[in-house]
Design a protein that fits this description.
- Helix content is 79%, strand content 0%.
- With 180 residues, the protein is mainly α.
- α1 packs antiparallel against α2, α4 packs antiparallel against α5 and α5 packs antiparallel against α6.
Amino acid sequence: MQNNNIKTLETLADQYLSEYRYKDAKGIYFKLISINPKNYIYLSRIAYIELLLKNYEDSKSFFLKSISICSTYIDGYNCLGYIYKLQGDFIKARFYYNRALCIDNCYTPALTNLAVLIMHEEPKKALELLKKAQSINTESADIYFNLGLAYTILKDYKQAIHFYIKAIHIKPNFILAIFN
């Protein structure tokens, strides 16, 4: 009986998320946490909602709780890196992206996020990370665009144009790629 109630609540929370009813979804996840306080997925969903609402400190707190319960929760580390980057703490952002990559060195969101973070200071390292991400996900316009940026920084304009064009082929209205 309780498992059916949990499934019903999970479905309803997901529905509310898809309808942008974040406060309603958050309320349901808090109910679910009261049933199962050690469920890192519920905690991470609340963290994600707080991130969408730009409540960064609350979001960090819930992501930190989620990774304290499941130390291999890779998306939690990646999201923490993203939040710290938004807040301008690039050292902690890099730390959390690297933690994600320690769990799975082929995790393309962390590869790409770390590459973008370090692109201006370490463009060759960023290029290496982006090439790895591209070898895993050959259909990402964003990865191709970032490869174009990295080559632009390295003043290899022929390669930069090549990757901007690849990004445009995947995403024809990619304004930044078209502009570059």
